[in-house]
Amino acid sequence: MVPESYYLILSALLFAIGVVGVIVRRNPLVIFMSIELMLNAVNLSFVAFGHRLGSHEGQVIVFFVMAVAAAEVAVGLAIIVAIFRLRRRLSVDDLNLMKW
Amino acid sequence: MALVAFVVVALLAVGSALGLVLRRNPIHGALFLVVNLGSIAVFYLMLGAEFLAAAQIIVYAGAIMVLFVFAIMVLIPGKEETGPDPRRTLRLWALPIGAVLFGLIAAWLVVPRATPPAATEAGPGGVEAIGRLLFGDYLFAFELTSVLLLAAMVGVLLLARRRA
């Protein structure tokens, strides 16, 4: 039996890698994928905590996270496609229209 | 035995996550992310969450990643990140930030604390229990999820519509 804390450490590591990806990369698609990585890291910790507590509620929350992530990805990709149509380029550094 | 399997799959997960962050070609990143999501599904299986493992494969590695690969193909990227980075010094801060973040979370995790409330062993085959929770205590949230998905669908149609 693997102790739950191993899963939690792994989840922290994956989350940190996702944060680095969001900061480092310039392609909004890769930034999105890094966000998915972070969501999955948190999901893993939810399931690990649920396993430790002997409760199924952690799994239910992960289910909701998956549904929200699906909606988020669909809307986000549509926004990226719309931006690409407008700009013909794809770099987050170009997207500074809302900067005051 | 279980520990060996854990270490192998954990190495796979961390390696594919690093691949996603480090490879320049976004399609490689997408494939690395598929590997990562699959290894997380294996962890779900190890933790006794069979339903989530199946949902992870179907929803994440299946549907969401198909969407990603499709978007990457449509947008023909791969040339965007090749030039010199004008904000290189700022971006390099990501490494210490990520290291500090991981250190903080790990430090919080390894600190011994009060033992959790008595772990009642979750029954095998959690699908039934999850179903009861979803359609019992969490029914309102479950219905809200369907409204959210519908709203997302309508929003995407509106966003992706080609303006005349």
Q: Would you write up a description of this structure?
A:
The complex is a heterodimer of chains A (100) and B (164). Chain A has 100 residues and is mainly α. Chain A has one domain (4-94): Orthogonal Bundle (Helix Hairpins). Helix content of chain A is 78%, strand content 0%. Chain A is built from three helices and no strands. Chain B folds into two domains: 1-78, Up-down Bundle (Four Helix Bundle (Hemerythrin (Met), subunit A)); 126-164. Chain B is built from seven helices and no strands. With 164 residues, chain B is mainly alpha-helical. In chain B, helix 1 packs antiparallel against helix 2. Chain B is 73% helix and 0% strand. The interface between A and B is large, with 69 and 80 residues.
Low-confidence stretches of chain A: none
Q: State the name of the first-level CATH class of the largest domain in chain B.
A: Mainly Alpha
Helix content of chain B: over 70%
In whole angstroms, the N-to-C terminal distance of chain A is 54 Å
Count of helical stretches of chain B: 7
Which architecture of chain A per CATH?
A: Orthogonal Bundle
Q: Rg of chain B from C-alpha positions?
A: 21 Å
